[in-house]
Design a protein that fits this description.
Layout: E1 3-8, E2 13-19, H1 24-29, H2 35-43, H3 47-63, E3 72-74, E4 80-82, E5 88-94, E6 97-103, E7 109-114, H4 129-133, H5 140-158, E8 169-171, E9 179-187, E10 192-202, E11 205-210
Antiparallel strand pairs: 1-2, 2-6, 3-4, 5-6, 7-11, 8-9, 9-10, 10-11
Length: about 210
C-alpha cells in the first residue's frame, strides 16, 4: 500500500501522506490526464517533480474516496481546488513524500519538509526576532522546521500571495516534542485570525497542518 498514513481528524477533515516507491512509468500508466494536464506534466524537467505532481493526485483521490481520476484547478494566486467538488484542499511534497489535507467546510493548509541543516541559512528570512529567540540548542533543527512548515501551512490556508512570513504569520513559542500542537496567527492591516496548528515528525521529515 503506497499510502504511508491516512488520518481522519474529524467528520470533515482527513490528512494523508504517501511515500513514493512507484516508478514514474507506473504512475503514468495508472492515471488519465486530459490534454491540458498532459501538457503541464510534460513541461516538468525532472523525474522527481513529475512524480510529486502525479502522486498527490493519487493521494487526493484516496482521501476523498473518489472512484474516478481528479482534476485540479488553480486560482489566480496559485491555490489549488478540485474541479466539481466542494472539498477544500492543500498539498505539499518533499523528496520521497507527498502530503495532503482535505476538508468539506473550511480552508486548510499543510506542509511537509525533509529536515536538513540548510534551513539555518534562511531562518532570518522567515522568523521574527521573538521567534528567533525561541530557537535554542534543544531540538534546534526540528523547531526551525516546525516554524517553517507552520508558516507555509498558514500561507496555503490563506491562499493569497500578499503575505510576508515575518510580519503576517506569527507562531507562539513552544516546547518541541515529536508530536504536538502550537498556536499561530495570520495578521495584517485589515485582518487578524488565530489558529491552532498540529505538527509531527515523520521519520526525518516534519509535517504541519492547520484548519
Amino acid at each position: 500500500m503506497p499510502i504511508f498514513f491516512k488520518k481522519q481528524i474529524n467528520n470533515n477533515i482527513i490528512i494523508g501522506a504517501w511515500k513514493i516507491s512507484e516508478s514514474l512509468e507506473w504512475l503514468v500508466s495508472n492515471i488519465n490526464l486530459d490534454k491540458e494536464d498532459s501538457e503541464t506534466f510534460n513541461s516538468f524537467k525532472t523525474e522527481l517533480r513529475k512524480k510529486h505532481w502525479l502522486t498527490y493526485r493519487f493521494l487526493l483521490k484516496e482521501l476523498i474516496n473518489s472512484k474516478s481520476d481528479i482534476k485540479i484547478l488553480y486560482d489566480e494566486s496559485g491555490k489549488p481546488h478540485l474541479k466539481n467538488s466542494n472539498y477544500n484542499i492543500s498539498v505539499s511534497h518533499s523528496y520521497e513524500y507527498v502530503a495532503a489535507i482535505v476538508s468539506r467546510k473550511a480552508p486548510v493548509g499543510i506542509d511537509i519538509e525533509k529536515i536538513s541543516q540548510r534551513i539555518e541559512r534562511i531562518k532570518n528570512k522567515f522568523l521574527s526576532e521573538t521567534e528567533l529567540k525561541d530557537i535554542n540548542e534543544n531540538f534546534r533543527l526540528k523547531k526551525l522546521y516546525v516554524y517553517w512548515c507552520a508558516k507555509e501551512a498558514l500561507y496555503k490556508l490563506y491562499g493569497k500571495r500578499d503575505l510576508n512570513f515575518i510580519t503576517n504569520t506569527k507562531i507562539a513559542p513552544f516546547n518541541f516534542e515529536q508530536k504536538g500542537q502550537i498556536n499561530g496567527e495570520l495578521a495584517g492591516d485589515s485582518y487578524s485570525k488565530k489558529y491552532k496548528l498540529f505538527y509531527e515528525q515523520v521519520n526525518d521529515y516534519m509535517l504541519v497542518y492547520v484548519y
